[in-house]
Amino acid sequence: MTPLSALATACVPIDHYSAVHVAASTARSLAEQCRLPGAMPDQAAVLASELASNLDKHARGGTLYIRPLPLGGGLEILAADRGPGMPEIERCLTDGYTTTGTMGAGLGAVTRIATHFTIRTDAEMGTLACARLALPEQPQAARQPAGLICVPADREQHCGDACAIIDADRTRTMIVIDGLGHGPHAAEAAQTALRSFHAVVDRPLTHILTALHRSLRRTRGAAVGILRLGAEKAEYCGIGNVRAVAISPHQVHHRLTGQPGVVGWNIPAPQSHRFPLAPGTTAVLHSDGIDSRWTHVPPHFLLRLPPSLLAGAVAHHHRSTRDDAAVLAALPHPRHS
User: Where does the PPM-type phosphatase domain lie (predicted)?
Assistant: First the structure.
């Protein structure tokens, strides 16, 4: 069985009202794969239906991103669009409110059903809304300060990127793997590296990268970036074009990319780079399916997003649809903050 952390994000463009049904059935199916008990798959379908319907009625360029929670324990449904924003956001979250003459249960129902719901809106970048369903015995999982999007290129059935966030030994370690090329062979390389990462996640970053290099020798290889977050510092180790970024609500503080090479084929001796991590800083790790220019002059709205929405905003507005794309965003492990 495929581990939940290996599942790509289900991406459902809301370009017609019929997509609302697709979104609901996709959410239900993924909730069942996540083994959410009882009525939770049906609740996931309702959340997806309401968020997708809201996009269809009020927004342009809307998409639903559906996937397991980044650190496990449930499911999340993230809605992103390209405007025009929600000027009366508090009223929109009230049961019965409507601007279209419909019942208006919409976002009010979402706030009631979701374990945790986060929403931000901007006139230029549009609205981002993340509804999370956590397992009954792990309600705190819905508030995990992390976001993850991993999607294949358009018209591809297999995602050649893979990523994960793992907490171990009071550290938070993030990885993005970009299998060379596209399609099933790239996906095979990415998933092979991800399995190897899970087995050695507690080791030093340079050792992890060396272990992944050995595991990928019979594949087409990959670019890999690994980021470990501590209380006031972070450590990055990478080969190939996987980028690490540290941002605060006011500016971008650090930009790093990997050493030249292909993991599994030919790499230099891995080197790690440490850099300070000021309080309130969010770490972002992404593949080259995300246009790196998003960090050049990012709007304040983007910089101030919580990690659960930041990953979705970066992916929705800055990914290339011709390439697989993965982006992670997270705060340090809570035991360090």
Answer: 144-332
Q: Which fold has domain 146-330?
A: Phosphatase 2c; domain 1 (3.60.40)
Enumerate the H helices of the chain as residue ranges.
Answer: 18-33, 40-58, 89-92, 106-113, 183-200, 205-215, 300-303, 307-318
Least confident residue range of 75-79, 153-157, 158-162, 216-220: 153-157
3-state secondary structure 195-257: HHHHHHCCCCHHHHHHHHHHHCCCCCCEEEEEEEECCCEEEEEEECCCEEEEECCCCEEEEEE
Taking only Cα atoms into account, the Rg of the chain, rounded to an integer number of angstroms, comes to 19
Q: Is the dihedral of CA 184, 185, 190, 192 positive or negative?
A: positive
Say yes or no to pLDDT of 45 above 60: yes
Domain ranges of the chain: 4-143, 146-330
Residue the block writes with tokens 């990928």: 216
CATH of domain 4-143: 3.30.565.10
- 266-275 tens-digit pLDDT: 999 999 999 9
For residues 253-257, average pLDDT: 95
- Please name every residue paired with 81 in a beta bridge, in sequence order, or none if there are none: none
Coil, strand, or helix at residue 117?
strand
**CA–CA gap between residue 328 and residue 337 (Å, rounded):** 19
- List pLDDT tens digits, range 285-303: 999 999 999 999 999 999 9
- Apex CA 260: angle with CA 257 and CA 262, to 5°? 110
CA 53 – CA 17 distance, rounded (Å):
7
Average pLDDT for residues 6-20, to the nearest whole number? 90
Query: Alpha-carbon distance 141 to 134, whole Å?
Result: 6
pTM: 0.92
